[in-house]
């Protein structure tokens, strides 16, 4: 019986044009747009250290911590150094900024701050770097005030904070900074499996469609129906993601840097999570199929936005300000899994993301099934 | 007893859709649930099928309490829903096969069932059609085939002939009678009294969620005092004729509709000749004459004071 339900639902999905458009054609089209928008940019944007001028002043001389940090992140012998620092007086720094020799000026006027002339990726990273430093110092000061002995620990932590550099999409190995946008695109495509999950719920709930009502009066266990239909949804989704990956790498020539099996595993986990997310939306949101679809599209877009689809800065801000939100966002987890592969952040981080994705999938599915199992409705 | 419903109360918010409904369906009968729009027919069916929660009451099917996971009971029920319930993305045959597969896992057995159902509703020429390409009548037939392919012992049909042309309707009604002859118990809801009268061995008339009368059609008609309705064509009716006819013995009401005078009489044998004698005596010429026995609409009209359909 499983196979028959699986096969029939597969047919229903594949033959539904609207469904196929959103879950398959739309990500392909969006990918093409990204490609057109970025292909010109990526080739001439060479990855290099961000040139910055630091104004020498008594305050700067006094700030031993900042000086040490600056030295670390601009060390000539480090391949992943972030900055290329020039020390100068105010006038000289401004001349260099105006001439385009540096992307920003770091100065004490009187507090530690930054001057830039335009906005761009480099400027964004510079700002992130300074914010991060100030945040850490503030933490350190509070701790010192409370418990001077702890201060040593915090100082140690500050040094370790260099690691945040690796979170940023700047790495000398990285050939194309825009690859991150394609990662969010893949994450979006995975979450668009939610359309299929929502459809599954429509197919088996008496209150969502006439045929759902008919399915509900048959002597088939809801769990069996749910699992078989979801399996069909995920199968379709996996094929769609495969097509998308082939299109992105084979036709558009986006280079994801190898590790194809790990990428595929992440896509599979993402597809499962997307389908379960859609099923949950279908069960939890009240209203007709249109209302549910609306909520699904809206929330998927929001999750992708928060994962950095429009601007990576949003992603950093959320990771910094609301780490829990970042951990509960499947789009973000998926992107982070991709980044850990691409930027070589380590197996542990990749594994943690995949595990969290699977945990979210389980949670979404349980919520959905909990509602489906009830089976009797107050009103149809 | 195939279905037993006791004291069923169902509310939608403040609206009482079923008010202490009691109902019994016996093995082998065609049970008709007749009532105007909004009288609670679909609600009653959905409660019986355990799709709806209800506020009070007890429902047994095949002698067992009905619940969403009473799978052995559900296996023997076939449902034809009021709204056409098929997958747009599946062809006629695929639809029937899918729903049948949820009852009959065995493939060979299922193939025979599906084939039989297709022939039963005469859709053999349309097997590969998608529902969108079917006319309203054909779609209804598909809806029926999906409900009955697994050969259920109890078939519940909720207004299966809504918006169907007369020929398809005839087809459907005959089919239902054939299923009944083959041994299935049938529950049929409708607001077309002619259908119910033709099909059902026992009828319950529902209004505002309560049964107002139950019995065979003869029993129902015996409950009321109206007899036949007599229609007489009178081309030049003089003023006051209607009043005079109404004054005759055994006449309940009279009215002119165009050239036809419609007279309702109480039950009796010589009402028609009494009226004709009266007209002759007054020298009034008349043309065509019909007399119709009372219908279920007369029953409904007399008990509730309103027409079943307006
Ligand atoms: N989901 C619902 N929410 C609120 N009220 C409802 C709901 N479904 C039905 N009703 C009301 O309950 C009453 C009974 O409706 P029901 O659909 O059972 O009637 P019906 O006899 O099947 O009518 P029809 O011939 O139009 O199919 C009606 O007054 C209807 O407005
Ligand atoms: Mg109804």
Helix and strand layout, with pairings?
The complex is a heterodimer of chains A (380) and B (310).
Chain A: H1 2-15, H2 17-44, E1 50-55, H3 58-62, H4 64-73, E2 83-88, H5 90-99, E3 104-108, E4 112-115, H6 121-146, H7 151-160, H8 164-167, H9 179-191, H10 194-204, H11 210-216, H12 222-251, H13 260-284, H14 289-306, H15 312-321, H16 323-327, H17 330-342, H18 347-374
Parallel strand pairs in A: 1-2, 1-3
Antiparallel strand pairs in A: 3-4
Helix pairs in contact in A: 1-12, 2-9, 2-12, 6-7, 9-12, 9-13, 9-17, 10-11, 10-12, 10-13, 10-14, 12-13, 13-17, 13-18, 17-18
Chain B: E1 3-12, E2 15-25, E3 30-34, H1 41-48, E4 56-61, E5 64-65, H2 71-74, E6 77-80, H3 92-101, H4 107-120, H5 136-148, E7 154-158, H6 166-181, E8 185-190, H7 193-199, E9 202-207, E10 210-215, H8 217-222, E11 226-233, H9 241-246, E12 251-257, E13 260-266, H10 271-281, E14 289-292, H11 296-304
Parallel strand pairs in B: 3-8, 3-9, 6-7, 7-8
Antiparallel strand pairs in B: 1-2, 1-4, 4-5, 9-10, 11-13, 11-14, 12-13
Helix pairs in contact in B: 3-4, 3-5, 4-5
The complex binds adenosine-5'-triphosphate (ATP) and magnesium ion (MG).
What distinguishing features does this structure have?
heterodimer; A: 380 residues; mainly alpha; D-Maltodextrin-Binding Protein, domain 2; 2 domains; 18 helices; 70% helix; elongated; B: 310 residues; alpha/beta; Rossmann fold; Alpha-Beta Plaits; 6-stranded mixed β-sheet; 4-stranded antiparallel β-sheet; 11 helices; binds adenosine-5'-triphosphate; binds magnesium ion
Task: Describe what is shown at a glance.
Chain A has about 375 residues and is mainly α. Chain A contains 18 helices and 4 strands.
């Amino acid at each position: 019986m499983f196979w028959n339900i699986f096969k029939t639902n597969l047919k229903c999905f594949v033959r539904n044009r609207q469904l196929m458009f959103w879950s398959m054609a739309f990500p392909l089209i969006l990918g093409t747009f990204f490609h057109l928008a970025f292909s010109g940019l990526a080739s001439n944007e060479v990855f290099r250290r961000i040139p910055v001028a630091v104004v020498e002043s008594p305050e700067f001389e006094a700030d031993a911590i900042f000086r040490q940090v600056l030295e670390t992140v601009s060390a000539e012998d480090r391949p992943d150094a972030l900055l290329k620092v020039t020390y100068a007086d105010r006038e000289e720094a401004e001349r260099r900024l105006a001439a385009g020799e540096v992307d920003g000026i770091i100065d004490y006027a009187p507090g530690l701050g930054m001057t830039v002339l335009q906005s761009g990726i480099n400027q964004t990273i510079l700002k992130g770097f300074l914010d991060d430093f100030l945040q850490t110092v503030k933490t350190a000061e509070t701790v010192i005030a409370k418990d001077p002995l702890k201060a040593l620990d915090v100082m140690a932590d500050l040094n370790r904070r260099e690691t945040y550099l690796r979170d940023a999409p700047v790495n000398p190995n990285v050939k194309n900074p825009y690859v991150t946008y394609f990662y969010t695109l893949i994450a979006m495509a995975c979450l668009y499996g939610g359309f299929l999950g929502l459809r599954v719920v429509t197919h088996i709930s008496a209150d969502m469609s006439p045929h759902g009502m008919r399915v509900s009066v048959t002597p088939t266990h809801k769990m069996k129906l749910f699992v078989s239909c979801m399996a069909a949804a995920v199968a379709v989704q996996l094929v769609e993601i495969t097509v998308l990956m082939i299109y992105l790498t084979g036709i558009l020539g986006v280079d994801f840097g190898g590790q194809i099996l790990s990428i595929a595993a992440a896509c599979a986990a993402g597809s499962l999570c997307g389908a379960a997310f859609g099923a949950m939306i279908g069960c939890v949101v009240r209203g007709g199929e249109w209302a549910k679809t609306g909520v699904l599209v809206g929330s998927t877009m929001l999750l992708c936005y928060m994962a950095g689809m429009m601007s990576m800065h949003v992603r950093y801000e959320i990771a910094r300000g609301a780490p829990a939100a970042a951990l509960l966002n499947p789009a973000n987890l998926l992107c982070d899994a991709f980044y850990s592969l691409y930027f070589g952040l380590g197996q542990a981080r990749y594994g943690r993301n995949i595990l969290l994705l699977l945990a979210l999938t389980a949670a979404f599915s349980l919520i959905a099934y909990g509602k489906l199992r009830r089976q009797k409705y107050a009103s149809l | 007893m195939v279905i037993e419903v006791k004291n069923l109360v169902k509310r939608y918010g403040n609206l009482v859709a079923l008010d202490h409904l009691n109902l019994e369906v016996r093995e082998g009968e065609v049970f008709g649930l007749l009532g105007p729009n909004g009288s609670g027919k679909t609600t009653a069916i959905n409660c019986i099928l355990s799709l709806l929660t209800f506020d009070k009451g007890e429902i047994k099917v095949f002698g067992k309490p009905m619940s969403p996971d009473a799978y052995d009971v559900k296996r023997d029920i076939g449902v034809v829903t009021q709204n056409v319930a098929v997958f747009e993305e599946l062809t006629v045959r695929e639809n029937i096969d899918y729903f049948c597969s949820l009852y009959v896992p065995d493939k060979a057995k299922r193939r025979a069932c599906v084939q039989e159902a297709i022939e039963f509703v005469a859709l053999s020429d349309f097997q590969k059609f998608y529902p969108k390409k079917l006319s309203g009548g054909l779609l209804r037939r598909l809806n029926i085939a999906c409900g009955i392919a697994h050969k259920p012992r109890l078939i519940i049909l909720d207004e299966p002939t809504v918006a169907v042309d007369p020929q398809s309707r005839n087809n459907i009604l005959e089919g239902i009678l054939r299923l009944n002859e083959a041994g299935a118990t049938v529950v049929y809801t409708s607001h077309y009294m002619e259908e119910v009268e033709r099909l059902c061995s026992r009828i319950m008339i529902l209004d505002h969620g309560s049964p107002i009368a139950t019995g065979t059609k003869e029993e129902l008609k015996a409950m009321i005092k109206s007899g036949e309705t007599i229609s007489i064509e009178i081309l030049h009716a003089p003023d006051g004729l209607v009043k005079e006819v109404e004054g005759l013995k055994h006449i309940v009401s009279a009215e002119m509709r165009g050239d036809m005078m419609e007279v309702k009489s109480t039950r009796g044998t010589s009402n028609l000749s009494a009226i004709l004698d009266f007209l002759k005596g007054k020298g009034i010429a008349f043309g065509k004459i019909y007399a119709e026995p009372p219908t279920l609409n007369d029953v409904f009209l007399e008990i509730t004071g309103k027409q079943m359909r307006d």
